[in-house]
Amino acid sequence: MTGLGLVTPGGSELDSTWSAVLAGRRTAAPDPELAGLPVSLSCRVPALEHPVLRRRGSARLDRADRFALAAVAQALEQAGLDPGAWDGSRVAVVTGGGLGGVRTQDQAMARFTELGPEFVSPYFLTGYLMNMVCANIALCFGVTGPALSTCTACASGTTALGLARELLANGSCDIALVCGADAGITRLTVTGFARLGALSDTGSRPFDASRDGFVIAEGAGALVLERPEHAAARAARPLAHLIGYAASTDAHHLVSPHPEGRGAEQAVRAALADAGVRPEDVGHVNAHGTSTRQNDTVEAAVLRRVFPHRPPVTSAKGALGHTLGAAGAIEAALTVLALTEGTVPPTAGLDVADAGMDIDVVAGEARAHPSSVAVSTSFGFGGHNAVAVLARA
């Protein structure tokens, strides 16, 4: 990993997001667009400005696409890569997202209903289709290698990382641009999650005894991955290494995790085996930590079984909310920063730890804790589980 980029409710670039997470700053706020719904809290990205968004046609892009382009541009800048000078056929794009351009879809449906079909924008489909984040990144940065879009719900960002790693390993590319992006804060999407009982209207409190759901959020995370030989040839400084990955499926329920966490545990153990590390080698865990009753209980039990040495655990969702399909990529980038700085961020919103969990969740303030290896977990509706193992460079 040679470059990172973040666009989140904590800030529109890497440093501001990291500062917000380190400080445990909660970004949830009442959302006027959600007024009158059973749940009206959201975590929105602040005003976003980046040169890449001044390109012709960018104003017509869905919010998810705009977030993605800005995050990828940041990551490329940090990596020291110039798209104008590379061989685009040796570059891949792999994106993850859960919803596609749902805001664009809502706007098109409103115009269709109120005014008729002739008033629907011809840009509707190119703003709505799930693959368009991937396609826009490829178009913007001149990527002509593999361009793949993954959807495993809230595990999508981590799934994209794993797929990119495979493309690099099998020689399909020298550079992979990985991005998770979602912008699902719409009245219909929020209503859907609220009807499932997944949302909180008081705040996200991962692993807290009084947690009652997540706060919906939006954003994007981008990571530049390179084959080690390619990075070395251009004297690039690696930030971290993606040394292990695994995925599994619960095959249990469409929206509830397996009560014993069998699929999640399978993925964690397989990722460790893929990385060639022992559980006790893991210095900290970036947990999925959604703040729902079921997820946190099941995840804590899995972490307790796999990591009996009780490494520090953190969840960024207390600060940033749940960015859905973007979460895995955003949290992988945060895990890289935690490894680089030897600091585990606090879990914002955690006041009284659930006594039955028996895991060491960092709360209150960031903890100085140098680690060589960290694990980042992601779980999604449909029973999707994806786990990445990262090592300090």
Rg result: 20 Å
Low-confidence stretches: none
Global structural class: alpha/beta
| SSE ordering | EHEEHEHHHEHEHEHEHEHEHHEEEE
Morphology: globular
How far the N terminus sits from the C terminus, by CA atoms, comes to 9 Å
Largest sheet, described in full?
5 strands, mixed
Number of domains: 2
What fraction, in percent, of the residue positions are helical?
25-40%
Instruction: Return the CATH architecture of the largest domain.
Output: 3-Layer(aba) Sandwich
**Per CATH, what is the topology of the largest domain?**
Peroxisomal Thiolase, Chain A, domain 1
Average the pLDDT over all residues and give the rounded result.
Answer: 97
What is the CATH class name of the largest domain? Alpha Beta
- Compute the number of helices: 12
Strand content: 15-25%
How many extended strands?
Answer: 14
What does this structure look like?
- The protein is 33% helix and 19% strand.
- It has 393 residues and is α/β, with parallel strands linked by helices.
- The chain folds into 2 domains: 3-233, Peroxisomal Thiolase, Chain A, domain 1, CATH 3.40.47; 243-392, 3-Layer(aba) Sandwich (Peroxisomal Thiolase, Chain A, domain 1).
- A 5-stranded mixed β-sheet has the order 1-7-6-4-5, sandwiched between helices. Strands 8-14-13-9-10 form a 5-stranded mixed β-sheet, sandwiched between helices. Strands 2-3 form a two-stranded antiparallel ribbon.
- Helix 2 (63-79) crosses helix 5 (132-141), helix 6 (156-169) crosses helix 12 and helix 9 (262-275) packs across helix 10 (293-306).
- The model has no long low-confidence stretch (mean pLDDT 97).
- Belongs to the thiolase-like superfamily. Beta-ketoacyl-ACP synthases family.
- It holds the Pfam family Ketoacyl-synt_C.
